[in-house]
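Researcher: Here's my situation. A collaborator sent me these components and asked whether they could plausibly form a single complex. I don't have experimental data yet, so a predicted model of the whole assembly would be a useful starting point for our discussion.
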Amino acid sequence: MYKKIALAGVLLLSAATLAACGGNDQNAPAANAGCKPAHANLKTAKSGTLTTSTYTFPPFTNVNGTTVTGAEGGILKEIASMECLSLTGQPLDTGSVVTAAQNGRADIASGNWYCTAARAKVVDLAGPVYGDQIGIISTNGASTFTELQGRAMGTVDGYLWNEEFKKIYGSDLKVYPTPTAMYNDLKAGRIEVAADSFGSATYANKQNGDKWKVVNPAADSRVAASKQPPQVCFPMSKNNQALYNAVNEDLKTLRDNGKLAKILEDNGLSGSAANTGELQLIQ
Amino acid sequence: MSGEVWSGVANGILTTVQLTVFGFALGAVLGVPVMLLRVSTWRPARWTGRAFIELVRGVPLIVWLFLIYNGPTQFDPSLGTVFTSWRSGVAALGLVSAVYMAEIYRGSLRAINAGQWEASQALGMSRFDTASRIIAPQVTRVAVPASTTYALSLIKDSSLVSAIGVFETTYYATTISSTLSSATPFVVAGVYYIALTIPAAWAARRLDSNLRRKVMR
Amino acid sequence: MTGIWQDFVTHQGQLIDGLIVSLQLAGLTLLFGLPGGLILAIAGTSRTRLTRYVAIALTEIGRGTPALVMLQLVYNGIPVTLSGLLSAGIALALTTAAYTSEIMRGGLQAVPEGEIEAASALGMSRWDTLRDVVIPQGLRIALPSLMSFSVIMFQATSLAFTIAVPELMSQAKSIANSNFHYFNLFIIAAVMYAAITISASAFTDRVERRLSRHV
């Protein structure tokens, strides 16, 4: 019996130690001392590091451990290096990605978040980062929303057209938690068409041997995003105005020197998507 | 099924084991005060214990994970450094384990003959001595099979912690599956979980029969 | 607090639809899972070694695989394409069958040996004894545990959001993904789950007390 109590004690003790060690090193020194940041005295969640809460959504974000690549990963990496920070990813379920940035656990959320008015009330939206379009991916190249009626259709959770689609397509529409889950179903034949970000649809099509057609559908008054192409933002906490301003200015620098377009192109997106114009929140 | 998938998913096994061990240890310890509240003869304490158990059990673990990970920082962002992914995961597993363990302890307590309390009292032992030296050792022994069954199920429940960014087995399966756009990593994860539970189940049965033999002697 | 209530009022239709899907999924899970558990329980005590081993293997696999992984396997890993709801029902039913078979086996074994001997003395066949004597009593003994396990399975339906079943958790997430009120919606989901499970477990307690009155 005493042995067991001792064992429990040891376990508990090691739990406490491990929990203590598990914490992040708060005061890690900046990556290199000689670097001069574009903006001085920025505060980040972990000093010396720009932390992005994210999830895997190719070609925008590819997460491998704490390394983030893809188009948004590349842009964030540029921003981080302009500020003499190193980029770290905090991969999460989509249910926690934005909250993590909102609460300041991470500095900035990534993964193709559209700039909408409803979201701007809760978080600061840095951007626009790049412009996006709806992509309809199907076997026959359907190009209008009316053509899609009556067919099993998929979309991904979080897209602003989901509510409008529900009204048009009703129970024919399935909402997927991740693009991967949706494309698995398209492959398996559970759905015939899918709506996704144009870039993500193109990427998925390439991954699957270009057997589908990706089309940007004709504008339709029932779907706001088809009339006004959505812009992508980086959701950030409302409590770190300095960092938010810095990110916005860094984005402008990257846009002006052409790096932004280059990163988009490197990741299979169109370089012209970098020319977003002014931020326009979708109502 | 390439070797890369097998080794990639295997990266999370150690974390799965750690989550289970720490979550269970936390639950096994916290379960005692919860059980004591629940069986208290003082009504407000009993009701508090009961309400706590019902509330914690009533909400799915995945919801607890989201709430513990995102909740505290909602009120004070600086708590983010306290509630890291790992600690939030252990806390959620520990919380849920505590109420299940409390119920297991309570069930074992009921299985002990009430006459022993009276007998000890007749021998002049204090209530505390009776509880700690007569009842508790027996409760522990009776609780072993149910506790080990619970610990085994916790191995699998720990898979949910992937949702808050802890790099355990299911996390690796999910990411590799997204990158490869294939379900194979989940087959691999399933094999690993079974590989973890079967020897653990065997060890648990051995422990149980050993204890039983000791009691009979 | 008002924000939470506001979010509930605004989205109550979608949330309640989600809860209904959760309940349907739980129903589907138990519909397939409980008979499965009984079959595994009986097969596990079979005199034929092969049957027994198959039953034990299935039980171990079912108990060893996390529900999250099981969902992915049934949904994406088998060559047949089933709808999300049906896949989730089957995946969770496999888990249910594996777990409840242990509970039911315990119940069946608790039926006094003497009754089985008496039945065979009366000339009843092994099957008839099983069907008319052992199973009814064994299930009655196992009933409270089965009911509390059912409540656990109802909670497990919250994992079906990973395969696009529009249940409560996925509706809550979906709403939160568009308005970013994550915390509010998870609180609402928690309350809705708790409302169902707490009343279900109160009912289980009553049944348990009622049954034990006659023992």
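Model: Some features of this prediction you could bring to your collaborator: Chain C has a mean pLDDT of 89. Chain C has one domain: 2-213.
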